[in-house]
Amino acid sequence: MPTLLVIKASLFGDDGQSSQLANAFTSRWREQYPNGQVLCRDLAADPLPHLTAEAVAGFQAEATERSPTQQASLAMSDTLIAELKQADAVAVALPMYNFTVPSTFKSWMDHVARAGVTFRYTEAGPKGLLETGPLYVFCARGGRYQGTENDTQTRLIEMFFGMLGFAEIHFTYAEGLALGEQAAAEAVGEARERIALLPLSVREGSQ
Ligand SMILES: Cc1cc2nc3c(=O)[nH]c(=O)nc-3n(C[C@H](O)[C@H](O)[C@H](O)COP(=O)(O)O)c2cc1C
C-alpha cells in the first residue's frame, strides 16, 4: 500500500493556491493508487517551533542525559522523519512568501535534517540516508521568478531534498498570481494541465 505524504504551508489552508494545486495532484494520485494512503502535514495549521540550540544538543545527547524539553523536541523531529520514511512519494505545496519559503516550512526543514539520521557528511559533501520515491513540488507565487536568479526556492528545494536522498523532483509553478485575474487564471490553468501530465510513480517495491 503506497503512501503519499503531502506537506502544506499556505497561511490560507486549503484556500491557498499551492494547497489547491497539491490537492489536484493528490486526487490524481488517489486514482492511480486506489489502495494507497495519503498523510497530510499542514505546517500552517500546526506550526513547528524554531529549532533551538537546546534541541540540537538534545539530538546528540545520550537518552538518559536529555531534559524533558529535549525529549519533546527529539520526539517531534522523529515524528516528522518517520513520516518522510513512510512516504513512497512526497508532495510539497510551496507558497512564496517574502522571496523565500514559508518560515513554517523552514522549521520543518530544520527538524528533518539530522546528521546520522537523514543524511551523513562525506568528503564529497552530504549524502542522503533516506530511501526515497519521487518528490512533487507545487510553487505558488504572486510574481514571476522561474528561470531567473530571483527564484530562491527551486535551487533550495533541489539542494535540501537532494541532501536527504531525493533524486527525482518534479516542479509545477503557478506564477504571476498577483498580476491580475486573467494572468492568475492562466497560470493556474497551465499548472493544472501540467499536473495532469506529471509522471506518477512511487518508491520501488511499495506497490
Ligand atoms: C505574507 C505574504 C508574502 C508574499 N511574498 C511574496 C513574494 O515575496 N513574492 C511573490 O511573488 N509573491 C509573494 N506573495 C504572494 C504569494 O506568493 C501568492 O499569494 C501565493 O498564492 C501564495 O501561495 P498560497 O496561495 O498557497 O498561500 C506573498 C503573499 C503573502 C501572503
From TrEMBL:
Bound cofactor: record note: Binds 1 FMN per subunit.
Residue stretches making up the Flavodoxin-like fold domain: 3-195
Pfam families noted in UniProt: Flavodoxin_2
Listed cofactors: FMN
Gene3D superfamilies: 3.40.50.360
SUPFAM superfamilies: Flavoproteins (SSF52218)
Catalytic reaction equation(s): 2 a quinone + NADH + H(+) = 2 a 1,4-benzosemiquinone + NAD(+); N,N-dimethyl-1,4-phenylenediamine + anthranilate + 2 NAD(+) = 2-(4-dimethylaminophenyl)diazenylbenzoate + 2 NADH + 2 H(+)
Binding locations of FMN: S10, M96, Y97, N98, F99
Enzyme Commission number, as recorded: 1.6.5.-, 1.7.1.17
Record's keyword terms, sorted: Flavoprotein, FMN, NAD, Oxidoreductase
Cited InterPro entries: Flavodoxin_fold, Flavoprotein-like_sf, FMN-dep_NADH:Q_OxRdtase_AzoR1, NADH:quinone_OxRdtase_FMN_depd
GO molecular function: electron transfer activity; FMN binding; oxidoreductase activity, acting on NAD(P)H as acceptor; oxidoreductase activity, acting on NAD(P)H, quinone or similar compound as acceptor
Family stated for the protein in its record: Belongs to the azoreductase type 1 family.
Role of this protein: Also exhibits azoreductase activity. Catalyzes the reductive cleavage of the azo bond in aromatic azo compounds to the corresponding amines. Quinone reductase that provides resistance to thiol-specific stress caused by electrophilic quinones.
Subunit note: Homodimer.
HAMAP family: Azoreductase_type1
Protein name according to UniProt: FMN dependent NADH:quinone oxidoreductase
Record lineage: Bacteria, Pseudomonadati, Pseudomonadota, Gammaproteobacteria, Chromatiales
Designated gene of the protein: azoR
